[in-house]
Amino acid sequence: MADHVDDGWWYEARRAFLADELADVDVSEGIALDVGCGAGGSLAVLSALGAKLTVGTDLVPEALAHAVGKVPGAELLASRAEDVPLRSGTAGLLVSLDVLEHLDDDVAALREYHRLLRPGGLLIVTGPAYPGLWAEHDEWAGHRRRYTRQGMVSAVKTAGFEVERETNYFSFLVPPAILMRRTPLRRLFSGSDDDASASPLVSRVLGTAARLERAVLRRRPELSVGLSLLVVARRP
């Protein structure tokens, strides 16, 4: 992650999707919180919103070591997603990107997110779609699950949130994922799916596809197909 978080096409695209989602969000009051911030790639997106304080948490000290200094003034905390050492109701915005799928109890984490957000606070979560595409990559990445859209929305609602928006994204990754995971072509690939997109040419192609998809999402609120899911919700 540390090698690719700054210039890898997937991380750049995810940051751009997040920035689009937050374009009209006012978080000038309270904390902007990134739970599971990893190497800190998304902290700058939150900091740019003008929150009083930007905070990132992660369980892995090595990841936090790479996040240090990425955003001047940001605070970093080592903690589990299910037990963040902050007072209740302190966050106006909480993002948790590709974290829930790693947890044994995703609803427990979402309930903690609910506690951390003030009334009216905004939640953005993402995760991998299509349980039927479970493969060696998921084992390698430490996933506990892939989500159906209904499954992710249900978990968010169970934790007490009101869902405002849901969509798939990375639609252009679905055909190659099917080929690499569910056809004999998978024998040509070893390791994680990331290896298949490591070449500069492939990265440029995929980065361009992501920019085109973002343009589509600006005109329409939802995509029904995509290898990743995004849910936007609010604490009542």
Provide keyphrases for this structure.
236 residues, alpha/beta, seven-stranded mixed beta sheet, globular
What does this structure look like?
Helix content is 34%, strand content 21%. It has helices spanning 9-21, 43-47, 61-67, 106-116, 136-141, 149-158, 174-182, 200-219; strands spanning 31-35, 53-58, 75-78, 91-97, 117-128, 162-169, 228-234. The chain has a seven-stranded mixed beta sheet, sandwiched between helices. Helix 1 (9-21) runs parallel beside helix 8. The protein is globular.
What is this structure's SSE topology?
Blueprint: H1 9-21, E1 31-35, H2 43-47, E2 53-58, H3 61-67, E3 75-78, E4 91-97, H4 106-116, E5 117-128, H5 136-141, H6 149-158, E6 162-169, H7 174-182, H8 200-219, E7 228-234
- Sheet bearing the most strands, described? 7 strands, mixed
Radius of gyration: 17 Å
Order of strands, main sheet, comes to 3-2-1-4-5-7-6
In total, the number of strands is 7
Overall pLDDT confidence: 91
Apparent shape: globular
- Give start-end ranges of low-pLDDT stretches: none
Give the % helix.
25-40%
- Beta fraction of the residues? 15-25%
User: Termini distance?
Assistant: 34 Å
Structural class, by secondary structure, is: alpha/beta
String of helices and strands: HEHEHEEHEHHEHHE
